Amino acid sequence: MKRVRITMDPGDLPLPPIYERMTRGSDALAEVHIVNWNVSQPPTGFLLWFRGDYEAFEADLADDDAIEESALLPRTDEECYCFLSGEVGPASRALFENFTRGTLLTVPPVVCHDDGSSTFTLVGTEADIQAAIDGVPPGVDVTVERIGGERVTPDSAVGQLSARQREAVEAAIAVGYYAVPREGTVEDVAAELDCATATAAEHLRKAEATVFRALLA
Question: What is the pLDDT of residues 18-69, one digit of tens each?
Fold first, then answer.
């Protein structure tokens, strides 16, 4: 049995509308995890975990015609589970089925990042893992974050960041944003990333929140 942790980045490929809203298009949700799913036959069911202003996201669920049923199951004022079911396109179904071939199991949660990428752990035979990685659609980039290790979850706080969040933090360090006294600004970070100032600030805020929660958990 082999164990590998991978990040899958769809790049410029279109995402399912609800996934687009949960990741790239959501200011309300700070974290999104896919906890469990059932794609054996339509309609597809998902159990998600949200952290953030999930009540503000409820309207997005109602506006998506592909969702047949949804329910928020609050845990705290900032955390909830979300059940939803509905139709997914052939490409999305094929992607999920690709990672359930042969001996493969996906260890939940699937961590969804704000750039549309996702990180998760696979266990199974080496041949099945390689076949799944080779079987992703053209245009989807797969990065192997870790092979083996003592745990199936990230071994460090940094391992929980998306690629774009890591890039933002690295840029912030380079321009002196975290120096004492501070030498760089968010505008400097945005210039390094070639993005809007608000986007750079959002990447840093989410990265900082993820790292501090991991360190204090």
Answer: 888 888 877 788 889 999 988 777 888 999 999 889 988 888 888 888 898 9
Residue type, 198: A
Instruction: For domain 158-216, give the CATH number.
Output: 1.10.10
* Whole-number Å distance between alpha carbons of 63 and 84: 13
Please name the residue that has the structure tokens 């399912």: 16
The whole-model pTM stands at 0.68
The first and second tokens of residue 179, run together, are 């120096």
Q: Phi then psi for 166, rounded to 5 degrees?
A: -60, -40
CA atoms of 213 and 200, how far apart (whole Å) = 20
Residues 6+ positions from 127 with CB-CB distance below 8 Å: 102
Give the CA dihedral 190, 165, 30, 109, nearest 10 degrees. Answer: 160
Q: At what angle do helices 163-175 and 197-216 cross, to 10 degrees?
A: 100
- 110 burial type by CB count under 10 A (0-12 exposed, 13-18 middle, 19+ buried): buried
Question: Could you give phi then psi for residue 111, rounded to 5 degrees?
Answer: -85, 120
Q: Cis link prior to 109 (omega < 30° from 0)?
A: yes
Cα gap 52→50, rounded to integer Å:
6
Containing H/E element for 142? Answer: strand 141-147
Enumerate the domain spans of the chain: 2-147, 158-216
List, for the chain, all residue ranges whose pLDDT scores fall below the cut of 70.
149-159, 214, 216-217
